[in-house]
Amino acid sequence: MGWGMKNRLSRIIKPDTGRTVMLAVDHGYFLGPTTGLQEPGKTIAPLLPYADTLMLTRGVLRACVPPTIDTPVVLRVSGGTSILGNLADEGTTVSMRDALRMNVAGVALSIFVGSELERKTLLALADLVNEAEEFGVPVLAVTAVGKEMVRDARYLGLACRIAAELGAHYVKTYYCEDFEKVVRNCPVPVVIAGGKKLPEHEALHLAANAVKNGAVGVDMGRNIFQSDHPVAMIRTVREIVHKDLPAKKAIEMYETLAKEKETVFA
Ligand code: 5RP
Asked: Long-range CB contacts (< 8 A, 24+ apart) of 85-91?
């Protein structure tokens, strides 16, 4: 791995703990103005100081995030579909040239293993890795799960392993039973998505179980920005990810912080 690649990866996965809290706010690329992200700039601003990395699309980055931020960006470069169509039919939406112009720390693309379009999405991943290697940009493979796919260790393990075999530098998947097997069988770091909004205590359990079982962190969206107390939530998730705070203590921490006034972004 070259210097640039290592440098970018270490901006995403923090070398002091080997972990990362990525804030995922890319949902609009297929969901449109989803709850909590109607005005992305207002959602992102108070959370930014607690995110190790911001994961989002080119459009929201340009329109809603000041270029003066210090937070590394992982840019979603796949899309072209909506919730109304065939989600797996994604293509690459951003050139590496434009990604680099935005000074990204990494790029992300979804793969749809098990869908009729798996070959297309896997070859898109391979093409992206080929290009990213030229410029030292780490690639995050997002193991997207279609409605018909089961989120179990066998399926997620298959998707993560294939992503790693094709050269993804790290992989995002879902937490599941026997998650440690998914991590063990994947030779690159694994982060988890939070998935649909859960009660806060369940989301904190999920994050704690994921890191306990080998995830290097989270790339979490809805369970942070759709929470009644997003800042309290991300601050607590940080403690779990970087300090191995156990779930019970994390829930106490969240409840204490939730009582404090949320930072108001004007
Ligand atoms: C969608 C994504 C999202 O970023 C990902 O699902 C994380 O967000 P959430 O925690 O809300 O699931 O990559 O494909």
From this structure: 86/117, 87/30, 87/112, 87/144, 87/146, 88/112, 88/115, 88/116, 88/117, 88/118, 88/121, 88/144, 88/146, 89/117, 89/120, 90/121, 90/124, 91/124
